[in-house]
Design brief:
mainly alpha; Arc Repressor Mutant, subunit A; 3-stranded antiparallel β-sheet; 11 helices
């Protein structure tokens, strides 16, 4: 979700903390993050803006599917909105207008790539503006969550074939916290239990392999630590409501 607003009429909470969105204009959220808005009944602010919602599957088999995780402002460690000048706001509004026109035009084989290219331009401009902003504003961190992301990225890239799916206890020990503390922290920050969080990471890696490689389902299952491909397929379907074969067919 990418949004820009003028006026909110309340407080916004992102994970466990208040989000600095009173004066800022722009916010970013990735799937499975949680937020809430506490309206101010006495607010007289006029509200305007836009919200762009992108289903993760729309990005698979595009360059952005791999690159989007490198945009730090989708992470919970960023607890402030993006502050924009009038000129910067107009730049982003122009890109959104291009996306809107393409979305409402007749869909053809070029539509998806054109929309994705506009989204990528939007994110690159936001990256530039955030970099400027963080030169003068302190960036808050949820260090344990960042360490968990790094741990899982490394594990899924190097160790999973030999050792299988990481257990909750394994992850907690690597982070030097108790499994119950880690579970409570993730529930507050992401709305998920630790095992759910690990499975979401697994499904992300699986989708990447299904959409960008010619590996068989069995090879992907083994590479993700499953002894039997049926177990992998059951988990994938329980998380996505479609089998690995059905998901892959969208990209062939």
């Amino acid at each position: 979700m990418i949004s820009l607003k003028n006026g909110i009429g309340g407080k916004m909470y992102y994970g466990q903390q208040e989000f600095d969105f009173d004066n800022g204009l722009m916010a970013f959220m990735e799937p499975n993050q949680i937020f809430r808005i506490q309206p101010d009944p006495n607010s007289t602010e006029k509200r305007s803006g836009w919200m762009l919602l992108i289903h993760p599957d729309f990005l698979w088999n595009t360059s952005l599917s791999k690159n989007i995780k490198h945009y730090d402002y989708f992470d919970y460690s960023v607890s402030e909105a993006l502050f924009l000048s009038d000129k910067e706001e107009q730049t982003l509004n122009t890109i959104i207008e291009h996306i809107k026109q393409e979305y409402h035009a007749n869909i053809d084989k070029f539509s998806k790539n054109i929309i994705v290219s506009h989204v990528e331009a939007l994110l690159n401009y936001a990256e530039r503006f955030y970099h400027r902003q963080f030169l003068t504003r302190e960036k808050a961190n949820h260090q344990i969550l960042e360490q968990l992301e790094d741990l899982l990225d490394t594990y899924f890239a190097q160790e999973i074939t030999e050792n299988g799916l990481p257990s909750v206890q394994f992850v907690a020990e690597k982070l030097n916290v108790s499994s119950s503390y880690l579970g409570n922290l993730l529930r507050v920050l992401t709305g998920q239990y630790t095992q759910q969080y690990i499975h979401e990471k697994l499904i992300y890696v699986a989708k990447e392999k299904l959409s960008t490689t010619n590996l068989s389902i069995s090879e992907i299952a083994y590479g993700l630590g499953f002894e039997h491909s049926q177990a992998f397929s059951r988990l994938f379907k329980s998380k996505t409501s479609q089998s690995p074969v059905e998901f892959r067919s969208k990209f062939n």
